[in-house]
Write a structure and sequence with these properties.
26 helices; Macrolide_Exporter_MacB; six-stranded mixed sheet; transmembrane transporter activity; about 800 residues
Length: about 800
């Protein structure tokens, strides 16, 4: 009975429930998209391209940052496994094309793993011949100059191959490719082709057992892409972290937005519910009426949000990949779990909001309900107070932890939840806060705007519970935007300062092909005017079996006689001149952790999994917590075998001859290097702004919905004012001043949220009491929130005033 009545009432309240539908639709889509991103990160699916024709691939352990070569003798072991038809060893090494584009060199036999097919020409048959793929832009015939390592050689193009592969490839005769690979007895990977009837799962177990004594992995399915794209290793972890943080934030915002929108929609029907109570409707029937209406809208909104969430999730993954946070080759995966979770969260938040919103009218006595129907004044309840105190207490605790316990960028992990807890607590107590804010703003508003301000203050004071419902989204928008954006600018400022402190070089040499050969360092040092030069090879290593597991440390391969002149390294013991052969300079913290002093030996597992015993040559302090090793040692255990950059002490003009001899090299002065050095921070900032922007867009929609609904509810009030002589202009000025009060109240509460978040974070990060970032950001946030509030209120009021006052008053009587 009540369900049928609920469905009928929806037809007459399209506007109010349309706002609820929009909030629920967006909330469900965002939550399900975040769930899909998390599943994508967990699955870490990288579909193979060049290895698509090989059901199984034997490769070095893909858990290491750097690609580990495979013993070529494993090919014979793999060939003896039942179900294996053929094994195809392949190598991979960087090749620079004449136009400066990067490509990868392979054996011609490895072309079968894609499979490539000769589109024109023939296979390479000697050391001076190559086959290029159709993506390389090199045509058949003639000679092409290829740069491999630090040397350039001419090859004759005898064929053009074609395959559905994005990366550019160059195929050499097998013997020539192995010579250029320069790792005797090693190959990059082994592709395994199966006999007819054999399955990848069945052969994989036997093959894994056959190579169990080696540090290799047997990959199948989407895992094969990790052998083809080693840079994707660990990409899923960043997505999991981002989706968890963003998803949690989105869920909390969604619950507040949905609760506020539905609550206001139900509150404007108190008069209707009071009449229902007066004619004998029970509280239980009223609850079922409200819950039935809400459930119908929520189910419809979540059902339509499901297909949209897939497109939204794929778009978000594409944006993350474009910013360098996620691998471009990673495939988006969204199964049933995130969909069910999104539906459950959306339905639960909607029903809880409807239950709470309708509770007041449902439990009130009929006579009291009729009396209070036109103006809600009761809002306080014990559960509301308890939840508010829990949120505020939790936010206070996190603020203290952030300021006193956290250190450095990790403080952001508690700063974000701090903002949400404070926002939640303040939102729950917003009607009480609204009374205080209206009392504080009363005299300035009246003094500034005269009669319209006086009426606006009277209205907001009389309708403070509903005004609080409009203040809350303004508080959420300004508070969250200010807190999250200035968190990023403060962190970026601290990182830029640390990088500037660590960079003592006057110029930085990089390469358009992705790496600089180590031989270039000696060439640079020989140039007139150059005082010092040091290669920089970025990787990571581990201290095996230290503590509860392998402790990871950043490693920089450097040139010993140039590092102190180009980097902010201060040696506390030992000498970097002794950083030769198998040696290491440890940061002070790590030396103390390991109990290692100069002359001691420490065991480290390098980026490709190789374990080495290193002598401690020095202990250093600096603005970075990295182990320093000889560049020659580190390069031998990296995938590319080249330095990422060369730091130079000396004028940029001294490097002009170098650019002439090596056109692929790029030279940047110190200012340019400092700007480029923040690339990682700029990427993180871009991602944070994207995610924050989505949440704020959702909050803004809630703000507009709330204001439009609240204005529409006042048709009768506006009609009566017009019947007693008020003009359109007077009413618009009155509601304009009301929106100013709402904006100022929301901005003030939002400032509290941002301050209790940002001040502890600034203390933890750099010891100051104020966040870093231009004041213009805050002015834009406040101006946008105020302008949107004013615009939404005035436009919706103008629309309502289009109805003649007699008709409006009669329609609502």
């Amino acid at each position: 009975m009540m369900l049928r009545l609920a469905l009928r009432t929806l037809r007459h309240r399209i506007g109010g429930f349309a706002a609820s539908f929009i909030a629920l639709f967006l909330g469900a889509a965002i939550v399900m998209a975040c769930g899909g991103l998390m599943e994508t990160g967990i699955r870490d699916a990288v579909p193979p391209q060049r290895l698509a024709a090989a059901p199984l691939v034997v490769t070095g352990d893909p858990s290491y940052l750097e690609r580990s070569p495979v013993d070529a003798a494993l090919a014979a072991k793999a060939a003896d496994v039942d179900g294996v038809a053929e094994v195809v060893p392949d190598v991979a090494f960087p090749v620079t094309l004449p136009d400066g584009a990067e490509a990868t060199g392979h054996t011609w036999s490895g072309a079968r793993l894609a499979p490539y097919s000769v589109d024109s020409g023939r296979a390479p048959q000697g050391p001076g011949e190559v086959v290029v793929d159709a993506n390389s832009g090199v045509g058949l015939g003639g000679t092409v100059a290829l740069r491999i390592g630090s040397k350039t050689a001419d090859y004759r193009v005898v064929g053009v191959a074609k395959a559905p592969v994005d990366a550019k490839a160059v195929f050499f005769a097998d013997d020539e490719a192995r010579r250029l690979y320069a790792k005797p007895g090693k190959v990059d990977l082994i592709g395994v082709l199966l006999e007819p009837g054999a399955t990848a799962d069945g052969v994989r177990d036997a093959l894994t057992a056959a190579v169990a004594d080696r540090d290799v992995a047997v990959l199948a399915g989407d895992e094969r892409g990790r052998a083809e794209f080693p840079d994707t290793q660990g990409g899923g972890e960043a997505i999991i972290t981002l989706s968890a943080v963003f998803g949690g934030l989105a869920i909390m915002v969604a619950m507040f937005v949905v609760a506020g929108t539905l609550g206001l929609s139900v509150q404007q029907r108190h008069r209707e519910m009071a009449l229902l109570r007066a004619i004998g409707t029970t509280p239980g029937q009223l609850r079922r009426l409200v819950l039935g209406e809400t459930a119908f809208v929520a189910v419809l909104a979540t059902a339509l949000g499901w297909p949209v969430s897939g497109y939204l999730g794929e778009w978000l993954l594409g944006q993350l990949a474009g910013a360098g946070v996620a691998p471009r080759q990673m495939a988006y995966r969204q199964g049933w779990v995130p969909v069910v979770a999104g539906v459950g969260i959306s339905l639960l938040s909607a029903l809880v909001a409807a239950f709470v919103a309708g509770r007041g009218a449902a439990v009130a006595r009929p006579t009291e309900a009729l009396t209070a129907a036109s103006l809600q004044t009761r809002w306080f309840s014990v559960p509301r107070l308890v939840f508010a105190l829990l949120c505020l207490g939790g936010g206070t605790a996190l603020s203290i932890i952030t300021a006193l316990v956290m250190d450095g960028p990790v403080a952001a992990s508690t700063a974000g939840p701090t903002a949400m807890l404070w926002a939640s607590g303040i939102a729950l107590l917003s009607p009480g806060a609204a009374r205080v804010l209206i009392a504080v703003l009363r005299w300035p508003v009246r003094a500034f705007s005269g009669l319209s301000g006086y009426l606006a203050v009277l209205n907001t004071r009389a309708r403070r519970v509903r005004v609080a419902g409009a203040i809350t989204p303004v508080m959420l928008a300004t508070g969250l935007a200010t807190a999250l954006i200035y968190l990023q600018t403060t962190q970026a400022g601290a990182a830029s300062g640390a990088f500037a402190e660590s960079l003592r070089a006057d110029a930085v040499v990089t390469s358009s092909t992705g790496g600089v050969p180590l031989e270039v360092v000696d060439e640079i040092r020989a140039l007139p005017g150059v005082e010092a030069a040091s290669a920089v090879v970025d990787t990571e290593a581990y201290f095996p079996h230290h503590g509860d597991g392998d402790d990871e440390i950043t490693v920089l391969g450097v040139t010993p006689d140039g590092v102190t002149r180009t980097m902010g390294v201060d040696v506390t013991s030992g000498s970097l001149d002794d950083l030769r052969g198998e040696s290491v300079a440890l940061p002070t913290g790590w030396a103390e952790e390991l109990g290692a002093a100069v002359g001691d030996s420490v065991r480290m597992r390098l980026g490709d999994g190789a374990e080495v015993d290193l002598e401690v040559a020095a202990v250093h302090t600096g603005s970075f917590d990295a182990a320093l090793m000889p560049a020659e040692l580190v390069v031998a255990h990296t995938t590319g075998g080249q330095a990422s950059q060369v730091l130079v002490k000396g004028p940029e003009s001294a490097l002009a001859p170098l650019a002439e001899r090596h056109p692929e090299l790029e030279v940047a002065d110190r200012e340019q290097a400092l700007a480029a050095g923040g690339g990682g921070e700029q990427t993180g900032a871009w991602v944070n702004y994207l995610l924050v922007g989505m949440i704020l867009a959702y909050t803004v929609i809630s703000l507009v919905n709330t204001l439009v609904i609240a204005t529409g509810e006042r048709r009768r009030e506006f009609a009566l004012q017009r019947l007693i002589g008020a003009t359109h202009g007077q009413i618009l000025r009155m509601v304009g001043m009301e929106s100013v009060v709402i904006s100022l109240g929301g901005v003030l509460l939002g400032a509290i949220v941002s301050l209790v978040t940002l001040v502890p974070f600034a203390i933890a990060l750099n010891g100051t009491y104020w966040p870093q970032g231009p004041i213009g950001i805050y002015l834009v946030v406040v101006g946008s929130a105020t302008g949107l509030t004013l615009l939404s209120t005035v436009l919706s009021t103008a629309y309502v005033l289009r109805t003649p006052p007699v008709e409006a008053a009669a329609a609502l009587d």
